[in-house]
Design goal:
Radius of gyration: 22 Å
Strand content: 5-15%
CATH class of the largest domain: Mainly Alpha
CATH superfamily of the largest domain: Ribosome-recycling factor
Shape: elongated
Oligomer: single chain
Helix content: 55-70%
Number of domains: 2
Low-confidence stretches: none
Structural class: alpha+beta
Number of strands: 6
Largest sheet: 4 strands, antiparallel
Length: about 190
């Protein structure tokens, strides 16, 4: 029972790290990246569809993303979705393909992005702490139901704390990498 709780906790914390990586990948750093568009949805025959499932995305240059829709009638819709997104990008429509220049970030925008990274990190720290709390409560419940001994529970609680520290370290590492990417991309 204790082993299952620890494994389940480890898996949940790993999912939190994966979620953080995905969320940080959608932040603009001044370099072209197709992952910027991961969160954008296009109304495709009445169904909100990820942009990457209706178009081919590419980065032919470090400051340019190309968006080539599989259905040419979607070109205007894709243009509108990218313009109205929170990315602050203005695509150029040449009738067949959208060229999305990635402008260099201003110092003010960099600071805003770093603040956003810190906010995202704090949300994920909270998620990890909540996972730890759930695991600790589950272990205390096992002790209360006399399904484990106090020594086993204490060792398991220490194991959960070590996992928490390990995953908090991974969160911080991801945050520092993204922050350096934002501040260093000039």
């Amino acid at each position: 029972m204790i082993k299952e709780t620890v494994e389940k906790t480890k898996a949940r914390m790993a999912k939190a790290i994966d979620d953080l990586r995905q969320e940080l990948a959608t932040l603009r750093t001044g370099r072209a990246s197709v992952s910027l568009f991961d969160h954008l949805r296009v109304d495709y025959y009445g169904v909100p569809t990820p942009l990457s499932q209706v178009a081919t995305l590419g980065t032919p240059e470090p400051t340019l993303v190309t968006v080539q829709p599989w259905d040419p009638s979607l070109l205007a819709v894709l243009d509108k979705v990218i313009r109205s997104s929170d990315l602050g990008l203005n695509p150029v429509n040449d009738g067949k393909i959208l060229r999305v220049p990635i402008p260099p970030l201003t110092e003010e925008r960099r600071k805003d992005l770093v603040k956003h990274v810190h906010k995202v990190l704090e949300n994920h720290r909270t998620a990890i702490r909540n996972i730890r709390r759930d695991a600790n409560e589950e272990l205390k419940g096992l002790l209360k139901d006399k399904k484990t001994s106090e020594d086993e529970e204490k060792r398991a609680l220490e194991q959960i704390q070590k996992l928490t520290d390990e995953f908090m370290g991974k969160l911080e590492e991801q945050g520092k990498i993204k922050e350096a990417e934002i501040l260093g991309a000039r």
